[in-house]
Fold:
Amino acid sequence: MTHEGASWLVSAGTYPRTTLARWSASPTASLVLPCGTSFDVVSVPAAFGCRLLDRLLAEGPGPGPVATHRGRTLLFAAPGTAHRLPSLLRWEEWGAVGRCGRSAVPPLLCHGPGDAVTVPPLTPGAGYGPRWLIAPLTRQPWLPGPDVLLWACARAARAEDDDAVRISIFPPADLGARVYDVSRRR
Structure:
């Protein structure tokens, strides 16, 4: 992480300079920062988070800063996303049961105004605590909004359905059958 990225993160707090000085003095310590002003955070299960990141990196505009913590992927999003994304997902019915027999999109935890999240340390420490997958590098990093995350959730859910086992009501094709071309028949 760069100094500019760390400055952006701590700008979410009440006393950014004090927080940055404390974090610089102990760069392997995690911070708890409030959401809603500089960023919102969308927390998804790790497996779905990997598919979501694949979609954002391969087909979309990119994910913005991303961290992992306690088996979940934390996507840093534009302020207001925590309020808007759940209603967009309900409207699009992405919580409905997919072909694989379970919900296409797992429950998302959206952290916005009034919430706080644990932010990974500046430098990775020992242990299995939070860590950055994509650290913020600039003072104004690009943050996906609810529309981008809705699109990525839809693509990731569709990819999961495509990987599911298909059960057909039709019998398997007979590969040894003789097939005759009757298109020239008079």
Observations:
- Residues 30-120+129-135+143-163 form one domain.
- The first strand starts at residue 31 and ends at 34.
